[in-house]
Amino acid sequence: MAAGDVARVIRAPGRIVIGPTTAFATTAYPYGGTEIGKSNLCVLQPAGTPFRVESEALGEATDILEPNNRYVFSCFLRGWDDDGVQQMLAGGYNAGATTQHAFFDVPQNVPGASSIGRAVILAYVPDDLIHSDGALIYRGIPDWSEGAEIAFQRGPEFGIPLSVDCLRDGNGNLLRVGRLADLSLT
User: Fold this and answer.
1) Sign of the C-alpha dihedral computed for residues 114, 120, 121 and 127 taken in this order
2) Beta strand pairing status for 34-39 and 14-18?
3) What dihedral do alpha carbons 53, 69, 124, 9 form, nearest 10°?
4) What is the pLDDT of residues 29-61, one digit of tens each?
5) Ranges of each domain in the chain
6) Residue 5 pLDDT > 70
7) pLDDT digits (tens, 9 = 90+) for 86-123
8) Could you tell me if 119 and 131 are in contact, meaning their C-beta atoms sit under 8 angstroms apart?
C-alpha cells in the first residue's frame, strides 16, 4: 500500500460494517449490522496471477490463462467498536472482566483447520455515498494483514490492520464494488 500506488480501488474514507442484513438503498445505516470502525484507505487486491502460454515455434505468447479468483480486502481500522471487532475476529477477542472492553487473546486455532466458521458479511460504506463506491464482501474470513504490527507508541494512531480473504457465498457471490445503493445482499 505504498503512497501513489495506482492499484488502489477505494480512496475515500468510510466505515466498515459487519453483518448487514437490510437493503442499502432503502434502509438506514448500519443496515441491520454493526459498525466496527472507520478507515481512511481501503485496498482491494486481486491475488491471482494470469499464466502466459508461450509458443516455442513463434517465440511469443499465444494465450493467457485466466488467474484464480482470489481477492483480499485490507484497511487500517480506526476507532473500532469492541463488540463489532469481537464478532469479526471470533476466538481472538474476549471481554475484560473489569472494564468489559475487548482485549486481544491469541486464538487457539489449530493449523490446517477450516476457518469458514469465522466468515462474515462485510460492507465498506463510504462517507460520501453519492460520489464514492462502496464494497460488499459476501463471505470474508477476517484476519490481521500479513506482516501487520500494532505499535504501542506515541504519535501514530492506534488501530487494527485488517485483512479479509473474500470467498464465494452459497449463491455464488464473491464481492461487489459500486455505489452502495446498487449493491444487493442477495
Assistant:
1) negative
2) antiparallel
3) 0
4) 999 998 988 988 888 888 888 898 998 888 898
5) 14-182
6) no
7) 777 666 677 778 887 777 776 666 778 888 888 999 99
8) no
Q: Write the DSSP symbol of residue 172.
A: S
Q: Quick one: CA torsion of 16, 170, 163, 123, rounded to 10 degrees?
A: -10
Lowest average pLDDT, out of 17-31, 50-64, 66-80, 117-131, goes to 66-80
pTM confidence score: 0.78
Q: Retrieve residue 169's grid coordinates.
A: 457465498
- Is the dihedral angle over the CA atoms 163, 148, 16, 117 positive or is it negative? positive
CB atoms within 10 A of CB 8: 15
Residues 6+ apart with CB under 8 A from 180: 24, 25, 123, 125, 126, 129, 133, 134
What is the SS3 assignment for 84?
A: helix
CA-to-CA distance for 40 and 133, rounded, in angstroms? 14
